[in-house]
Design a protein that fits this description.
Blueprint (H helix, E strand, L loop, with lengths): L19 H8 L3 H12 L2 E5 L2 E4 L2 H8 L6 E2 L19 H12 L4 H4 L3 H20 L4 E2 H18 L5 H4 L3 E5 L5 E5 H16 L5 H7 L4 H25 L8 H6 L11 H32 L1 H14 L8 H4 L3 H13 L9 E2 L5 E3 L2 E3 L4 E3 L2 H4 L16 H4 L2 H7 L13 H18 E5 L8 E3 L3 E3 L3 E6 L4
Parallel strand pairs: 2-10
Antiparallel strand pairs: 1-2, 3-7, 4-14, 5-6, 7-10, 8-9, 11-14, 12-13
This protein binds protoporphyrin IX containing FE (HEM).
């Protein structure tokens, strides 16, 4: 094809010849690391597939993702797209804007204060399970329980009905086929398997019409159907509730049914399913990773933990679940969370965009139209110029460091018109959970010298994290 235009740029191994290099790295769950190593050796502009340039430079963030840049999402997003597009995989600008406008106000900082009761009640259920583990001196897999937490929170926010994972202590939830057969299936594995195969197949997007059919019998595609059936079940139930008038009018789903004047929006079932699907995905998996990573880093760094506890003990009273208001202005708590998002970004993979007609200069180099470009999130978040000793977990850098310089390279939620719509909710969840857990509980990794694994499918999912827990002395 026209891949020759990228010949001037260096590439690792055979990446310039075939996307099989990326696909292979992704199948090993370590795509982000392979790209990171490549940038270390080859510099800022690296060709990671025949028509894909990865650019690790703060300027490239604005050039590619910034407001006004007008780079559209790449065909990679077709890999996971169903019959109807949702907010995250809509590639046409006008279509995306219409979807985003529908929900933007729901996720604004002002409105999310309304979510406090749901979030607090779910934190209480999380703490009850931690307490149970402490009392019975059994270990607890915090990675799983933090994921149950985000699933319960988001199903409550979206459907007005918690999927109840925390109370059951598992993620077995109801799914439903289009002909009404209800069955039970694990939420997390269904989502992870589906995301992984879609990520891989999207990396050779021109072949999607073929590979989507070829792999339709693959177990991971079946998992995708299970995940869709979970969404279908909850959507149908929620619609039934709407018809009998006993539904909540404050959940996010209600905002997809009517506008603020109560007039129907007329979305069809396929569109309701698509938006529910992306929210139960993006709204649960990333925040679960962020929470797990932060708990891991805090209990790995006793000095940081002690300092955070000092701040929390001074600023909050002895209620078990601190209010968001009492936490939102605490600089060190926020720094601990920010530094975790930097060091172990839940979304590490460069997000692919297409260079618009006419070509563009990106971070000082002219790139021809039609080229796929991305900024490697993991790599830029470890930029040694922006972040001194970038491999260190050092929350203090967010207090004493060069904030302006760091802000130019810090983008765990992406940036510009396609940046994360859920970041305020996510910070809300993270601050309250981290504060409540750290205040009350001492943890110890069951395995000596434990290192938390990163398993990158699309998101960077943390591996299992099994811990002993005791009530904190004096708490
Ligand atoms: C720590 C937690 C989170 C991280 C690190 C994160 C990260 C991201 C990133 C990097 C993007 C850009 C994706 C792309 O360009 O393809 C994104 C988009 C998105 N996120 Fe999040 N996210 C988080 C939490 C959430 C939550 C709680 C929600 C719940 C609603 C959410 C919903 C979305 C949606 C709908 C988009 C697509 C936005 C658009 O294209 O307009 N995310 N997120």
């Amino acid at each position: 094809t026209d891949g020759n235009k990228l010949r001037q740029f260096p590439s690792p191994s055979f990446a310039g010849l075939s996307s099989l290099w990326r696909i292979y790295k992704n199948l090993q769950y370590k795509h982000y690391l392979a790209i990171h190593e490549a940038h270390k050796i080859l510099g800022t502009h690296v060709r990671i597939a025949p028509n894909h340039l990865s650019i690790s430079d703060p300027q490239a963030l604005q050039d590619i993702y910034g407001h006004g840049a007008n780079f559209l999402k790449d065909a990679w997003y077709d890999g996971g797209a169903g019959e109807y597009r949702h907010m995250a995989d809509a590639r046409v600008k006008a279509e995306h804007q219409a979807k985003r406008k529908l929900l933007a106000h729901v996720f604004a900082p002002k409105t999310i204060a309304n979510l406090e009761p749901v979030i607090s009640a779910t934190v209480a259920r999380l703490l009850a399970q931690i307490e149970k583990a402490a009392d019975s001196t059994s270990s607890i897999n915090m990675r799983r329980y933090l994921n149950y937490f985000t699933i319960d929170v988001f199903s409550s926010i979206l459907y007005g009905n918690s999927l109840g994972c925390l109370q059951r202590g598992n993620d077995m939830v109801d799914a439903e086929t289009k002909d009404g057969k209800v069955y039970t299936i694990p939420f997390i594995k269904s989502l992870h398997d589906a995301v992984h195969i879609n990520t891989v197949l999207g990396m050779e997007a021109p072949l999607l019409p073929l590979t989507k059919r070829l792999f339709s019998f693959h177990s991971h595609k079946k998992a995708g159907a299970d995940y869709d059936n979970i969404i279908y079940h909850n959507t149908v139930r929620r619609l039934q509730a709407a018809n009998t008038d006993c539904a909540s009018t404050s959940d996010v789903f209600s905002k997809l049914l009517t506008n603020n004047k109560g007039e129907p929006l007329g979305l069809c079932l396929g569109e309701l399913l698509a938006e529910g699907s992306v929210m139960m995905n993006a709204g649960t998996d990333t925040t679960a990773a962020a929470l797990t990573n932060t708990i891991y880093l805090l209990y790995k760094h006793p000095y940081v933990l002690t300092k955070l506890r000092q701040e929390l003990d001074e600023a909050t009273d002895n209620t078990t679940i601190p209010s968001y208001d009492s936490l939102s202005h605490l600089p060190y708590l926020r720094a601990c969370v920010e530094e975790s998002l930097r060091l172990r970004p839940p979304s590490s993979m460069g997000l692919p965009r297409v260079v618009p007609p006419g070509g563009r200069t990106i971070a000082g180099k002219f790139i021809e139209e039609g080229t796929t470009v991305s900024v490697p999130t993991y790599t830029l978040l470890r930029d040694p110029v922006a972040f001194e000793n970038p491999d260190e977990y050092n929350p203090d850098r967010w207090i004493n460091g060069d904030k302006e310089m760091m802000a130019r390279a810090h983008f765990p939620f992406s940036t510009g018109p396609r940046a994360c719509i859920g970041r305020n909710i996510s910070y809300f969840e993270q601050l309250v959970v981290i504060a409540a857990v750290v205040k009350g509980w001492d943890f110890e990794f069951v395995e000596g010298g434990f290192e938390l694994e990163t398993i990158e499918r699309f998101n960077s999912n943390p591996g299992e994290m099994v811990m002993w827990v005791r009530r904190r002395e004096g708490a």
